[in-house]
Design goal:
The chain contains five helices and two strands. It is 45% helix and 8% strand. The relative contact order is 0.11. The protein has a domain at 2-62: 434 Repressor (Amino-terminal Domain), CATH 1.10.260. α2 crosses α3 (27-35).
């Protein structure tokens, strides 16, 4: 996972300092992750995805590319919206 984060950072040409500033974490947090001292937290991944919407977290975490596409699928269909239902009967709609 660490190597894929480094590959991604090189690809977008971003420094540890800039990454920390962009996602709102301490520079030491990024330094500790990049040195292997600490593993990235869920909060780290959420902040990454919020700032870098096109980042494929599936690839970063597992090494596998996301198997679906918003514009096409193996069935010839595309995703129009995702509905999350909560147990209090409320819901959120997400646009892919």
């Amino acid at each position: 996972m660490l190597e894929r984060i480094k590959i991604w950072m090189n690809k977008i040409n971003i420094s540890q300092t800039n990454l920390a500033e962009n996602i709102g974490v301490n520079k030491a947090t990024i330094s500790h992750i990049m040195s292997g001292r600490n593993k990235p937290s869920i909060d780290f991944f959420i902040k990454l995805k919020e700032y870098y919407a096109d980042l494929d977290l599936n690839w970063i975490i597992s090494g596998q590319k996301t198997s679906y596409s918003k514009s096409s699928s193996k069935l010839g269909k595309s995703v129009d919206k995702i509905v999350i239902m909560y147990n209090d009967k409320s819901f959120d709609e997400l646009q892919p």
